[in-house]
Amino acid sequence: MEPTRLDGKSVVVTGAGGGIGRAISVELASAGARGLLLVGRDQAMLEASAEVVRAAGSDARTHVADVASSEDVRGYVAAGASAYGGIDVLVNNAGIEGVVSALVDYPEDEFDRVMATNARGTFLGLKHVLPGMIEQGSGSVINLGSIASRRGLPGTSAYIASKHAMLGLSRAAAAEVARHGVRVNCICVGVVDTRMLRSLAEQIGPDDPEGTLRSIERFTPSLRLGTPEEVAAVVRFLASDASSYVNSANWEVDGAGLNTMGGLWS
Predict the structure, then answer these.
(1) Which residues have C-beta within 8 Å of that of residue 254, sequence separation ≥ 6?
(2) Which of 167, 171, 207, 250 is the most exposed place for a label (fewest CB within 10 A)?
């Protein structure tokens, strides 16, 4: 059997309504996952993702939730466990970019909003899914971090702080649960062609967002943007038993990194 198959495994993906979340969901369905619970805020987008997941061969159910709400997170974990008899894989993908602004001018309420979704949402996902995985003696959690998990970029202090927190949470959780057969890894995603990147490009260069995207491409050693499907392929490996001895890792999916982008903000 192909080593990254997920036959018999149940999966929860947050932020599954579009972009990277949808690509991950389809990839894991294509790998043979028996069922996926797709979590997000927009029911219509979740249903669109569910359709393509079913077309890829897996059962798909949707669950509207705010990942920053402990009650909502408990709800989606319970829904996934009830639907599939347990959760084998959790992909913490939900995230927001916030505004582009110098730190000294950054709105405090916006900082709190970004941290709530990205950092608190990851914490709550881990907090509520890990007990079930520990009890069953197996499980894989993949947290979608960023190049922002490992470096600073101007104008995005809340996003940078939240993504650093996601990497730290991944490492702390892995150290606690590894002895129970549970793995927690983080993928640090580079510049990928998604709604989020295009939103940042519009904020950085409102007069020419497409030109700004092209400039961002030139700052990558690979000279191109990544695709959601390229991220999804790595998630599949980390979700599968092929990565059974990979734990507390930081997987960089970034096309060889990113050169300084400070000039884009000036």
Answers:
(1) 147, 188, 189, 190, 191, 220, 226
(2) 207
CA distance 134 to 170: 16
pLDDT score of 261: 56
DSSP 101: B
| 174 shares a domain with 218 | no
Residues 141 and 214 in one domain: no
Residues 16, 108: one domain?
yes
Amino acid symbol at 224: R
The one catalytic residue in 76, 84, 106, 159 is 159
- The Cα–Cα gap between 255 and 221 comes to 7
Residues 158 and 207 in one domain: no
Least confident residue range of 17-21, 116-120, 195-199? 195-199
Angle between helices 108-115 and 157-177 (to 10 degrees): 30
Q: Which residues pair with 187 in a beta bridge?
A: 144, 251
Distance (Å, rounded) from C-alpha 253 to C-alpha 257?
8
- Check whether residue 34 and residue 162 sit in a common domain: yes
- Evaluate whether residue 104 is within a structural domain: yes
CA distance 263 to 266: 5
Q: DSSP code of 19?
A: H
Residues 6+ apart with CB under 8 A from 5: 31, 32, 240
174 and 78 housed in the same domain: yes
In this predicted structure, what is the pLDDT of residue 196? 83
Pull the structure tokens for residue 38.
Answer: 């797709």
- Give me the domain span that covers residue 198: 193-225
Percent of the chain scored above 70 by pLDDT?
Answer: 97
Is the pTM higher than 0.85? The answer reads yes
Tally the domains of the chain: 2
* Residue in the structure block whose two tokens are 């990147």: 197
Task: Give yes or no: 106 in active site.
Answer: no
Comparing CA positions, the residue from 122, 140, 130, 135 lying closest to residue 11 is: 140
